TrEMBL record:
Name used for this protein in its record: histidine kinase
Main location: membrane
PANTHER family for this protein: SENSOR HISTIDINE KINASE YPDA, SENSOR PROTEIN KINASE HPTS
Species assigned in the record: Paenibacillus glycanilyticus
Record keywords, A-Z: ATP-binding, Cell membrane, Kinase, Membrane, Nucleotide-binding, Phosphoprotein, Transferase, Transmembrane, Transmembrane helix, Two-component regulatory system
Keyword Magnesium appears in the UniProt entry: no
Transmembrane segments: 20-42, 314-337
Cell compartment(s), UniProt: Cell membrane
Domain HAMP per the UniProt entry, residue ranges: 334-386
Length: 609
């Protein structure tokens, strides 16, 4: 309900708020989608990068373990390559320690390099050469005895009686080369360090190739992590070295020493991620010869920490982009909204009748052009109203002037008709014609029509001139010509008669016998022109200039007639500037008055525009 109220009050009828909301929704969805895709791509890249780093670390661990495997194998191979050392080793593994000591004395190696042929000295030197070696164990299958080298203690020979120990069985069983130290052997030699792994190699007689013993080497598991020191970036997750049965040979996190790795089933899975302590990525490397497995475990939580900074950065950048992308356009839209509201408010003022108001917007964009066009429309509307109002006013004034004597039109018409019939019955034909012309003129003047056709207006002029032709008999003549197609052109009533009357008053000379007036109506170049020419006394240049100036000046209240100025103003008000009266005259050569207005076709086209 509250949302509905907010929508009705602020959104429903507000176009710009809708635009801002739609734009904001689009921007949010676009930026969030792009940010999500970008985060997905970059986080995948980070995950792959971290997994590659872990894979490289696993390969370094594997290389390190292979070096230790090779160290054990090379130790046995070196024994086989040295014939004396190989013979002495076989003798040691097949006889008691006292017999071996006597054997060595009998061989008289005092003058030579004893360590090169004495298996015990040789193994001691090998242990001293590699700090990773914690114990070397040489087991004799025939004698069932174990000779142990301890880095931090003395060398000792241990009897492994099968009735009291499982060591002979353990040594006889075949297993992986790499494993954790057996608990029975640990107890025998007193080595309880949990961070050890062993590498085993068979020792055979060089001549008969019969297995005569085994070489076991215990390495420090903590030294495996030394291979990770080359890692340039901090290692995330952990790396383990496991035997085939899940014994932990090395653990970079020191969590599973002395235990069986509890997730061996998941390690063998083909899935990229498995649920261990938590959902984790698992990578493996298998060393088939030594029989161990290098496992890389990368918890997803640790991986999430790797791109947590990226996530915060993307959220920050996306938030800034959303703020910038929404606020800046919103400011622009709000500004446009304010300008539009001003235009709407202004239009309501004009609707209320205030035609003098104007929009003040100097900008040249679309709203500025609308404001300017609206102002120009109001200016033109004002001019049009002014023209129509003044034209109507002038017309009403003309009608009022013509109707000043209108008391009872029907009584006057009937009276003039009685007088005309009386004159005709008495033989006064000319008097009858004058009365007829006067009656028709009077009837037209007082009629309610506001317009005549050009033919009717010319007929009124003819009747008016006919009165003076009868009056002055042979002293005055006139002629009226009009194209047939112009007879039906509508014009304002009493538009031409004031010009004819002006000639009668000012241009005709009753002393002359050749007074003539010629009226011609033509259409040329889209204009209708009525030319009224006379052969009167003409107009002085100064007087003509004064008349032309007065045509453009407003009439004063003292003037009782409308004359030439009334005709000119009425045409200009109806048809616009550029149309109206023009006068040409030379003293003694008469005058020519031309009335010009646009043809009806041009007026209609102008109205359509």
């Amino acid at each position: 309900m509250k949302f509905r109220k907010i929508y009705n009050n602020y959104i429903q009828n507000n176009l710009f708020v809708k635009v801002i909301l739609v734009f904001a929704i689009i921007v949010h969805l676009t930026i969030i989608t792009l940010s999500y895709l970008l985060f997905g791509l970059m986080s995948d890249s980070i995950v792959n990068s971290e997994l590659n780093n872990q894979k490289q670390a696993m390969e370094r661990v594997n290389r390190y373990m292979e070096q230790k495997y090779d160290w054990v194998q090379n130790t046995v191979q070196d024994i086989y390559r040295n014939s004396l050392l190989a013979s002495n080793t076989s003798y040691f593994l097949r006889h008691s320690y006292s017999d071996y000591a006597q054997y060595m004395l009998d061989q008289n190696y005092a003058g030579g390099n004893e360590s090169a042929v004495d298996i015990l000295s040789y193994l001691a030197d090998r242990m001293d050469a590699d700090p990773d070696v914690q114990n070397i164990l040489l087991y004799s299958t025939d004698m069932q005895q174990l000779y142990a080298f301890n880095r931090n203690g003395p060398r000792r020979l241990y009897k492994t009686n099968p009735t009291r120990s499982y060591i002979p069985e353990i040594m006889a069983s075949e297993g992986a080369v790499a494993a954790t130290p057996n608990v029975w052997i640990r107890g025998l030699i007193g080595q309880w360090n949990s961070q050890l792994y062993s590498m085993r190699a068979q020792v055979n007689d060089k001549n008969t190739l019969k297995n005569i013993g085994q070489l076991l080497v215990y390495f420090d598991s903590g030294m495996v992590n030394r291979s990770l020191d080359e890692q340039r970036t901090p290692l995330k997750g952990e790396i383990l070295v496991l035997s085939q049965d899940g014994q932990v040979l090395s653990d970079s996190a020191n969590r599973y020493y002395g235990k069986i790795f509890p997730y061996m089933q998941q390690v063998g899975s083909l899935k990229q991620t498995e649920l261990l302590d938590e959902q984790s990525y698992i990578s493996t490397l298998t060393q088939n010869t030594a029989g161990y497995l290098v496992v890389g475990i990368m918890p997803k939580s640790a991986m999430a920490e790797a791109y947590a900074g990226l996530k915060r950065t993307i959220i920050l950048i996306s938030s800034i982009c959303i703020i910038v992308a929404v606020i800046i356009p919103s400011i622009l839209i709000v500004n446009i909204s304010r300008r539009t509201n001003r235009i709407v408010h202004f239009m309501r003022k004009v609707e209320g009748g205030n035609l003098t108001a104007r929009l003040q917007d100097a900008r040249e964009d679309e709203l500025g052009q609308i404001s300017q066009s609206f102002n120009e429309m109001l200016d033109e509307l004002g001019r049009h109203i002014d023209r129509e109002y003044k034209a109507e006013l002038r017309h009403k004034q003309t009608e009022l002037a013509a109707l000043q004597a209108r008391v009872n039109p029907h009584f006057l018409y009937n009276t003039l008709e009685v007088i005309r019939m009386r004159a005709m019955s008495q033989g006064a034909v000319d008097v009858g014609e004058m009365i007829y012309s006067l009656a028709v003129l009077f009837r037209n003047s007082v009629s309610a029509k506001t317009e005549n056709t050009l033919g009717e207006e010319l007929e009124m002029c003819r009747l008016y001139l006919e009165l003076f032709r009868i009056r002055y008999k042979d002293k005055f003549a006139y002629e009226v010509e009009c194209d047939e197609e112009l007879l039906r052109v509508p014009i304002a009533k009493l538009l031409l008669q004031p010009i004819v009357e002006n000639y009668i008053v000012h241009g005709m000379d009753s002393r002359r016998k050749n007074n003539r007036l010629f009226i011609e109506a033509v259409q040329e170049h889209g204009l209708i022109q009525v030319r009224i020419r006379d052969n009167g006394k003409g107009i002085e240049p100064e007087q003509l200039a004064l008349i032309m100036r007065r045509l453009k000046m407003p009439e004063t209240e003292e003037q009782q007639s409308f004359g030439l100025r009334s005709v000119h103003e009425r045409i200009e008000l109806v048809h616009g500037p550029g149309y109206g009266l023009s006068i040409e005259s030379m003293p003694g050569q008469g005058a020519s008055v031309t009335v010009t207005w646009p043809a009806e076709v041009e007026r209609e086209e102008a109205g359509d525009v």
